[in-house]
Amino acid sequence: MNYDVAIIGAGPGGIYAAYELVKNNAGLNIVIFDSGHELSKRKCPIDGEKVKSCIKCKVCSIMNGFGGAGAFSDGKYNITNDFGGSLYEYIGKKTALDLMHYVDDINMEYGGANTKMYSTADSTFKKICMQNDLQLLDASVRHLGTDINYVVLTNLYNFLKDKVTFLFDTAVTNIEVKDSHYQIDYKDTSITADKCIVSVGRSGSKWIEKVCEDLGITTHSNRVDIGVRVEIPAAIFSHITDQLYESKIVYRTHKFEDNVRTFCMNPNGLVVNENTNGIVTVNGHSFEDPAKKTDNTNFALLVSKRFSVPFKDSNGYGESIARLSNMLGGGVIVQRFGDLERGRRSTEERIAQSRVKPTLNATPGDLSLVLPKRILDGIIEMIYALDKIAPGTANDDTLLYGVEVKFYNMEVEVDNHLETKYKGLYMIGDGSGVTHSLSHASASGVYVARDILNLN
Ligand SMILES: Cc1cc2nc3c(=O)[nH]c(=O)nc-3n(C[C@H](O)[C@H](O)[C@H](O)COP(=O)(O)OP(=O)(O)OC[C@H]3O[C@@H](n4cnc5c(N)ncnc54)[C@H](O)[C@@H]3O)c2cc1C
After folding, report:
1. Is 53 a residue whose pLDDT tops 90?
2. What percentage of the chain has pLDDT greater than the value 90?
3. Rounded to two decimals, what is the model's pTM?
4. How far is residue 78's CA from residue 328's CA, in Å, rounded to a whole number?
């Protein structure tokens, strides 16, 4: 079977590429592969009762399937070039922002119309941050919420399902470059396609590295972000989250002059496990539906590390730290800030007495046995810095979950079409290392679709 376009990965990158192709040329013959299930069949077995923590399924329903890693996320679409990826370096700042707004318009049309857009523009909070040695990054944030994000994805799936061929539970094993097309291998068989868009996200990191190696496509080492997820009573941060929803705040530590930043803020949200290639780390999300909101707010505090010579495997470094926490805690570890400061582990009893009730069932332990001193010192300094703008952040009962690791894929060498050295072979989204967010990954999908259609 020969297709006009094969898309590998049905995450935001793949979905918006397919949407744009179909919308502009209904006659195209398109196939989309995904190693995970279709959306309605994606179900994480953790139910809080029989299955309390990650059982390391072969294909993780949180990370794989229609909607990709973003399917059960908080659905925060950050419209900015300041963070979320370096797409603008390839396609220009204006085009990148225009495409992110275009994706937002699609999301509004497909079910997100009643959701709120927040903005740092004209925020008084920027000045307060500055006065306290903190920097607030500029962004507009569309918060769909986990529930509306699911509705938008369902509607997009319904729009696409009769117009393209979906092959779920189908991992592509290999891509071969033929004279004028690509051969795509899966389950002991193959198809061919004139153009191929690879959008396999973080869960496809090892696979895409192998494909690049086999095809002689250059990759460059990327950074890794390591830290903890902080959980506090929502009231402590409400003056910030009510105005901005998500604030990206950066602090430069006095001790090492390292940057520590807030990431993925979830007002009234939940802390969750994340399984990347069998390693359990922590993440968070929140619902738009008031009935599903919790009394807590969570966000990550992260420090970036990039290695070069002689060691350049930044992800490997992050993996080792995550593995250490998995070894000590059997998964994610939780610790009260007061226990960390007093140099003692948290226990079931201490967590039970804490006034902050954890929203994730994690193992009480000692994060100082897991995180390198330099990273941990930076996180502690940042917690005290945040305490100045949100008093209570440094309370003893503040919960820290570890470890949170943001793995970034190796940066694949692509040109300003997001095309590899092979004509018609595109690598986009988080899998390419170019993007790290819903909005940037989605925008990269629209961009390559337009490139294929000669619309750019
Ligand atoms: C819990 C959680 C919360 C998040 N919250 C936010 C948020 O609020 N805002 C934000 O901007 N970002 C968030 N993110 C990150 C965001 O989800 C990603 O940046 C985004 O999904 C990247 O899109 P993508 O299309 O590049 O890759 P993905 O969404 O990872 O999709 C890749 C798809 O490719 C498939 N695949 C992989 N390998 C193969 C293969 N060999 N063959 C076939 N299919 C394959 C996978 O199954 C997957 O479905 C969150 C992530 C998680 C895990």
Report:
1. no
2. 81
3. 0.87
4. 35
274 lines ligand 1 (CB under 6 A): yes
* CA-to-CA dists, residue 192 to 33, 106, 178, 180, angstroms: 13, 30, 9, 10
Q: Answer yes or no: is pLDDT of 288 > 80.
A: no
Q: Give the chain's mean pLDDT.
A: 94
- Residue 13 CA, closest ligand 1 atom number: 25
pLDDT at res. 73: 84
Contacts 24+ apart (CB under 8 A), 21-25: 21/449, 21/452, 21/453, 22/159, 22/160, 22/163, 22/164, 24/449, 24/450, 24/453, 24/455, 25/453
Q: How far apart are CA 17 and CA 441, in angstroms?
A: 10
Weakest mean pLDDT among 52-56, 321-325, 419-423: 52-56
- Mapping DSSP to helix (H, G, I), strand (E, B) and coil, where does residue 244 land? helix
- Write out the DSSP string of 134-198: EEEPP-EEEE-HHHHHHHHHHHHHHHHTTTSEEE-S--EEEEEE-SSSEEEEETTEEEEEEEEEE
Name the nearest CA neighbour of 379 among 233, 225, 261.
261
126/121 Cα distance (integer angstroms) = 9
Number of neighbouring beta carbons within 10 Å of residue 229: 28
What's the pLDDT score for residue 315? 86
d(CA 413, CA 46): 38
Helix axes 12-24, 438-452, angle to 10 degrees: 30
Q: Side chain identity at 199, as an amino acid letter?
A: S
Q: How many Å lie between the centroid of ligand 1 and the Cα of residue 25?
A: 26
**Of all atoms in ligand 1, which is nearest to the CA of residue 72?**
1
Nearest to 167 by CA among 343, 289, 18: 18
Q: Specify the range with the lowest mean pLDDT, choosing from 23-37, 203-217, 303-317, 424-438.
A: 303-317
Question: How far is Cα 182 from Cα 13, in angstroms, rounded to an integer?
Answer: 20
Give distance in angstroms: CA of 283 to centre of ligand 1. Answer: 13
* Torsional sign, CA 377, 383, 384, 386: positive
Q: In this structure, what are the phi and psi dihedrals at residue 26, rounded to the nearest 5 degrees?
A: -65, -15
Q: Is 199 in the pocket of ligand 1 (CB under 6 A)?
A: yes
